[in-house]
Design a protein that fits this description.
Layout (H helix, E strand, L loop, with lengths): L6 E5 L6 H12 L2 E4 H14 L7 H8 L4 E5 L4 E5 L2 E2 L7 H11 L2 H15 L4 E5 L2 H5 L5 E6 L2 H11 L8 H17 L12 E4 L5 H15 L2
Parallel strand pairs: 1-6, 1-7, 2-6, 7-8
Antiparallel strand pairs: 3-4, 4-5
The protein binds cytidine-5'-diphosphate.
Length: 224
């Protein structure tokens, strides 16, 4: 009998490697990968582009009715569009990094995106990564993983990925990662949480390939 493809929720703090690992694992298993962080980043980009103050919840909420997001899968990952404009690269800027957790704390933004995430997740064969996937977006996911690592390891990984290392120090990145963790964990709406049923993977002493292999093993063991 063919195996039942499942829904996998991957949550964890900033820079734990959720996106890159989930993307690789999804490709290997032929699953759909949905990066929900990219959706919060795209809304944040649109807010900044419109000249709206991220603290102005009313203006941010009003903007939502004018936004259409589209994720288009590519061979390696996906491109993300806001009202038809490809913002895939633009959503990784320092400006977006600095404002995204503030935008993600707004209830209307979360409702707007969670509805789209659930619709995209459909009937299974999906990996979603974010902060509230196991707790809010897909509470019935067959497998929940909490991927974490020490703040030092996470900041270092992020710094190694940064193209302009001269303009951003490791210390700056560490501060930005810690500030996002703080906001994401302590916000009122859908905070980052490790649900009791999640399997915790701490990648401090695991390589990329070892972490991906562990995730593949957990998924194949959960598929019926
Ligand atoms: O990849 P990285 O760890 O830098 O973060 P991300 O997944 O791109 O998410 C960026 C930000 O979006 C997070 O710091 C959260 O503030 C927010 N987010 C969220 O609130 N809920 C999600 N499901 C995903 C992201």
């Amino acid at each position: 009998m063919s195996k039942q493809r499942i829904a996998v929720a991957v949550d964890g703090p900033a820079g734990a490697g959720k996106s890159s690992i989930s993307k690789t694992v999804a490709k290997q298993l032929g699953y759909l990968y949905i990066d929900t962080g990219a959706m919060y980043r795209a809304v944040t980009w649109a807010v900044l582009e419109a000249g709206i103050n991220p603290a102005d919840e009313k203006a941010v909420t009003e903007l939502l009715s004018k936004l259409t997001l589209r994720m288009e899968p590519t061979a390696d990952a996906f491109n993300i569009f806001v009202n038809g404009q490809d913002v895939t690269g633009l959503i990784r800027s320092q400006a977006v990094n600095g404002a995204v957790s503030q935008i993600a704390a707004i209830k209307a933004v979360r409702e707007f995106l969670v509805a789209q995430q659930r619709a995209m997740a459909g009937a299974g064969g999906v990996i979603l990564d974010g902060r509230d996937i196991g707790s809010v977006v897909l509470p019935n996911a067959e497998l929940k993983i909490y991927l974490t690592a020490s703040v030092e390891a996470r900041a270092k990984r992020r710094w190694l990925e940064t193209p302009d290392k001269e303009s951003v120090s490791l210390e700056d990145i560490k501060k930005s990662v810690m500030a996002r963790d703080e906001m994401d964990t302590n916000r009122k709406e859908s905070p980052l949480v490790c649900v009791p049923e999640a399997i915790v993977i701490n990648s401090d002493n695991l390589s990329f390939d070892e972490t991906a292999a562990r995730m593949v093993q957990l998924i194949t063991a959960t598929e019926k």
